[in-house]
């Protein structure tokens, strides 16, 4: 269950150009910037906030400080409710359509999540607040892609339904101590990476910490599919500009590689029952020397890992899973919208953005000379490199609301061997086609 508490009390610029297809445009924004109170008084009021960032993550640290600052500036109390990603992902539509909806919520970006809720009328069009606070001036076109949705819920065009205030991407975390022990270098190609995996296996170590019951393995297979893909392939997959073919060379090679890595022992068959948190914990404990997952783990590893560790972009890749961070969204049923907008604005302030960057996050509006933590600089440098080569490829589950669970289910069958590579690709194709049918 999520923890609960009451708080009381009186640029980094992204430069990637993402070629997203323009589907149906959204309607005009409701109201105007003049309707937004940018100095709301919250005496006697409570703002309910839902997030799913761990308290020791960069975002958790930054949002905690933002809540303190919010209370001091507005006089309002904060009812902060920590949820799990799965809790919010599975129940958002139902909760936001009830009187239990929070006033502001962290929510996943993309067609299948924020896009779906916006098309259902469950999220507030925050365009007037964007104009009143000037948030658009702080967000590059890349970041704005995941903040705007058409009437059909397709990202990239239409009205503003959320604000991202950090970036994120998927990279390789590695145990430097174990790499040094076995005289291994950071690989720069897929072949070199495979050699590293085999070396660890020869030493009796399962190299990859993996989860097939949640997102990590889905991100890995997508990364493998991206190795020889181009931007148009990503655009077609994410925005339906051309049919996605799961038996093309990219997906076939990716699924075949995952199957080979399971058979060779680079990925444990137990991954079918392992959750993302468990996979991250196994890396933190030093059980597995390599973990391919998101930048959101950075702060946790910096705090908890008792060994020297580092990061690198996936070898041989010019594109990787990544995008803006999750969005702050304001449910349509919120009765404290001006306070919600004020809280969002505080998370965009230099103080909070700098704090985010120095604790392992990727801020969108930090002051460049304010980032002093060396590992944070490495994290941001890798992200900048990926961004500069137009390498943010979003995430594999985004195209359809049900595809996250469908993809995990297919990959579990691939790992445990109950379906062949072709059968798994057939299932992925069927699930994708069914899930995206309404958008085409």
Automatic annotation (TrEMBL):
<dbReference type="InterPro" id="IPR050490">
    <property type="entry name" value="Bact_solute-bd_prot1"/>
</dbReference>
<protein>
    <submittedName>
        <fullName>Raffinose/stachyose/melibiose transport system substrate-binding protein</fullName>
    </submittedName>
</protein>
<keyword id="KW-0732">Signal</keyword>
<dbReference type="Pfam" id="PF01547">
    <property type="entry name" value="SBP_bac_1"/>
</dbReference>
<dbReference type="InterPro" id="IPR006059">
    <property type="entry name" value="SBP"/>
</dbReference>
<keyword id="KW-0813">Transport</keyword>
<feature type="signal peptide">
    <location>
        <begin position="1"/>
        <end position="21"/>
    </location>
</feature>
<comment type="similarity">
    <text>Belongs to the bacterial solute-binding protein 1 family.</text>
</comment>
């Amino acid at each position: 269950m999520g923890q609960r508490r009451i708080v009381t009390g009186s640029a980094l610029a992204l430069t990637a150009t993402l070629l997203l297809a323009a589907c149906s445009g959204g309607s005009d924004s409701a109201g105007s910037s003049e309707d937004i109170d940018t100095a709301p008084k919250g005496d006697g009021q409570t703002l309910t906030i839902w997030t799913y960032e761990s308290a020791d993550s960069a975002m958790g640290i930054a949002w905690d400080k933002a809540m303190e600052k919010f209370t001091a500036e507005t006089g309002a109390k904060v009812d902060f409710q920590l949820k799990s990603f799965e809790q919010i992902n599975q129940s958002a539509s139902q909760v936001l359509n009830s009187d239990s909806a929070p006033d502001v919520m962290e929510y996943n970006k993309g067609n299948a999540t924020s896009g779906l809720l916006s098309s259902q009328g469950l999220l507030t069009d925050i365009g007037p607040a964007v104009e009143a606070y000037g948030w658009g001036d702080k967000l590059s076109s890349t970041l704005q892609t995941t903040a705007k949705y058409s009437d059909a819920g397709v990202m990239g065009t239409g009205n503003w339904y959320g604000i991202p205030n950090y970036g994120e991407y998927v990279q390789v975390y590695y145990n430097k101590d174990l790499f040094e022990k076995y005289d291994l270098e950071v690989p720069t190609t897929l072949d070199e990476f495979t050699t590293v995996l085999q070396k660890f296996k020869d030493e009796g170590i399962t190299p990859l910490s993996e989860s097939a019951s949640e997102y990590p393995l889905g991100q890995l297979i997508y990364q493998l599919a991206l190795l020889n893909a181009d931007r148009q392939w990503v655009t077609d997959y994410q925005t339906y500009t051309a049919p996605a073919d799961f038996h093309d060379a990219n997906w076939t090679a990716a699924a075949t590689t995952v199957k080979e890595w399971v058979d060779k022992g680079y990925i444990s068959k137990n991954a079918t029952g392992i959750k993302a948190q468990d996979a991250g914990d196994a890396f933190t404990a030093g059980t597995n020397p390599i973990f391919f997952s998101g930048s959101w783990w950075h702060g946790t590893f910096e705090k908890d890992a008792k060994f020297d560790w580092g990061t690198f972009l996936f070898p041989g890749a010019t594109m990787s899973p990544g995008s803006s961070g999750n969005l702050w969204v304001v449910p349509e049923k919120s009765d404290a919208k001006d306070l919600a907008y004020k809280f969002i604005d505080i998370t965009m302030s230099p103080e909070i953005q700098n704090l985010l960057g120095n604790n392992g996050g990727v801020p969108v509006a930090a002051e460049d000379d304010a980032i002093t933590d060396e590992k944070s600089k490495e994290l941001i440098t890798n992200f900048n490199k990926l961004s500069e080569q137009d390498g943010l490829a979003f995430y594999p589950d985004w195209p359809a609301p049900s595809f996250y669970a469908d993809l995990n289910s297919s990959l579990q069958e691939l790992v445990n061997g109950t379906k062949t590579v072709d059968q798994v690709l057939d299932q992925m194709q069927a699930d994708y086609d069914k899930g995206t049918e309404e958008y085409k």
